[in-house]
Amino acid sequence: MTITPAEHAAMGRALELAARGPARGPNPRVGCVLLAPDGRVLGEGHHRGAGTPHAEVDALAGVRAAHGEGAARGATAVVTLEPCNHRGRTGPCAGALLDAGVARVVHAQHDPNPAAAGGAARLRAAGVDVVGGPMADDARTLNATWTRAVELGRPVVTWKLATSLDGRSAAADGTSRWISGRAARHDVHRLRAGVDAVLVGTGTALADDPDLRVRHVPVEGAQPARVVVGVRDLPPSSRLAQAARSGEPVHHLRTRDPRAALDALWALEHRHVLLEGGPTLAAAFWRAGLVDEVVAYVAPVLLGAGTLAVTDLGIGTIADAVRLDVSDVAVLPADTGDPADPTDTTTVRLTMRPRKES
Amino acid sequence: MTITPAEHAAMGRALELAARGPARGPNPRVGCVLLAPDGRVLGEGHHRGAGTPHAEVDALAGVRAAHGEGAARGATAVVTLEPCNHRGRTGPCAGALLDAGVARVVHAQHDPNPAAAGGAARLRAAGVDVVGGPMADDARTLNATWTRAVELGRPVVTWKLATSLDGRSAAADGTSRWISGRAARHDVHRLRAGVDAVLVGTGTALADDPDLRVRHVPVEGAQPARVVVGVRDLPPSSRLAQAARSGEPVHHLRTRDPRAALDALWALEHRHVLLEGGPTLAAAFWRAGLVDEVVAYVAPVLLGAGTLAVTDLGIGTIADAVRLDVSDVAVLPADTGDPADPTDTTTVRLTMRPRKES
């Protein structure tokens, strides 16, 4: 099926509008433009995050406010994602479009969410002309992580791994500050700022008493949730226990099962989580096939002994090694330029995805 | 002191000529241009490798052949390196320039070799006008490794390190083919082709029966020498023992002392050696402070267990870790594009130098 030049232009605009929405959280970023039968733009809208109107409803409300009730009758809705057919915090968009008398819907990405899908079918059954697919790749890219999470039915897991060049995370005596350079340590905050939750095991929580908040970089919306996975208690004096008592979003998931942890995080509406360690928790996720992306900070330091950054992945022979496909390599430069400063070195960041064997 | 525009142009030409010489071997690459007193070019020459005339002698011979005896009288010699004052396989260049009646010498790099230095002083003592230093950085860059070796009084050591992302060189059962991608394995041959000798310990020689020759890439001149360091015997059936019997340049240095091995290699006129392993030999060089450069091939593979690529560097705490300054990061791409081919992955190459603490 074809779309008109006006609809194509409107889809480009809808994608721009969609990009204004929040990049993380339970909902995708969606934009909508309403066109009159002659191709004039009647109004536009976008989704601003969970609990606020969906893009179609936002656009319809704008048209109604500007042009009065019934102004969208016979209109075409151009929307970046197939209108939903489920009632969450807000009503289904398919119903809202039908109520408004929209005659045609052009959408880009098909809804990957089994719970929400069926919007196009419902609209068609009610006699609306529905075209799906134009610019779907752009729309999918805009919500790449959300789409993946919805398809997987669990949060997307990014594993952050920091290692010396020879695979160590600490020296023989346990000291580890600092293996990575300063730019790499700051870069981790950028990673945190892009996810819904940051995960560590109880081992790391007990050993390092981490804070896990985003610092150094701006955060869009709230701080990501901080999550400890494992059955051991944290002392009440620990930073995370104190933060929980202060009402900050800190969760202790008392399980050793990565799938159970992800199910709980999914129920908390987390779609992208950052696994920061330690090695035991990371290995459990890896062995369960629950790592979707690896971001490794390789510091140009040799230790020759000490704690290994990665242990016990259940791999006995090279043929069983899981290869990673490298999508990005970045050199994070030293920022002081002072060669005598041992806390500041260039670090190499590799972004990778486990290769799915064919 | 200043030089004339004609001399400046001649030095640029001399550097071009120098670059035609062999990049490895015991001697530096040197070029020479002889100018008449009015700035005209009388002749030019360059050094073509050990046992052939030095650049000054090559240029003087050309001038003599073209213009007859005495044609260089009163001339200016523009040369990329301070004329030598020692008799090696060929006579000292300072003497040759004096014999030819050269009145002025402009040289770039000062001779870093204590055994050869003194050429400028000898020329000055004989009344020649000598200017040293113009474009010295360019000349030094052209012979960077040779200069470093001469200053150190031993071969420059490049350590080649291949590791999985988590610091392993083999899986739990000892299998290691292939951790690095194909492009990385070929790149190692490029490294070999740039050195005078390739070194392994007896452990690696016995375990892997390596060939150590350059393959896949062209070699300028002879294959680099192949050197085994350690006291254990190699079986007569090993590839290296067979090559030695065939008269190929294979040496077994029966010592465990890296400094003694380098002294022997220096006496064999090797100026740049590639340390390929194994971990015991590499650690001995590292602990002795005898590693000048590290080229690490980091493969995007996780093993979680197995042989560690680097062991026992004598580092107990993070403050004692030796940082490396990264001079280059290269992504060596997979070359088949077949995601099902486990022997072909992208590999990241880091070129580094141990940071000298101030």
TrEMBL record, chains A, B:
Cofactor list: Zn(2+)
Reaction catalyzed: 5-amino-6-(5-phospho-D-ribitylamino)uracil + NADP(+) = 5-amino-6-(5-phospho-D-ribosylamino)uracil + NADPH + H(+); 2,5-diamino-6-hydroxy-4-(5-phosphoribosylamino)-pyrimidine + H2O + H(+) = 5-amino-6-(5-phospho-D-ribosylamino)uracil + NH4(+)
Ranges where the record places region Disordered: 334-358
Protein keywords: Hydrolase, Metal-binding, Multifunctional enzyme, NADP, Oxidoreductase, Riboflavin biosynthesis, Zinc
Superkingdom per UniProt: Bacteria
Pathway(s): Cofactor biosynthesis; riboflavin biosynthesis; 5-amino-6-(D-ribitylamino)uracil from GTP: step 3/4; Cofactor biosynthesis; riboflavin biosynthesis; 5-amino-6-(D-ribitylamino)uracil from GTP: step 2/4
Enzyme Commission (EC) number: 3.5.4.26, 1.1.1.193
Low complexity: bias regions: 334-347
Classification via InterPro entries: APOBEC/CMP_deaminase_Zn-bd, CMP_dCMP_dom, Cytidine_deaminase-like, DHFR-like_dom_sf, Eubact_RibD, RibDG_C, Riboflavin_Biosynth_HTPR
Co-factor binding comment: Binds 1 zinc ion.
CMP/dCMP-type deaminase domain ranges (all copies): 5-120
Its biological purpose: Converts 2,5-diamino-6-(ribosylamino)-4(3h)-pyrimidinone 5'-phosphate into 5-amino-6-(ribosylamino)-2,4(1h,3h)-pyrimidinedione 5'-phosphate.
Family to which the UniProt record says this protein belongs: In the N-terminal section; belongs to the cytidine and deoxycytidylate deaminase family. In the C-terminal section; belongs to the HTP reductase family.
UniProt name for this protein: Riboflavin biosynthesis protein RibD
Organism: Isoptericola cucumis
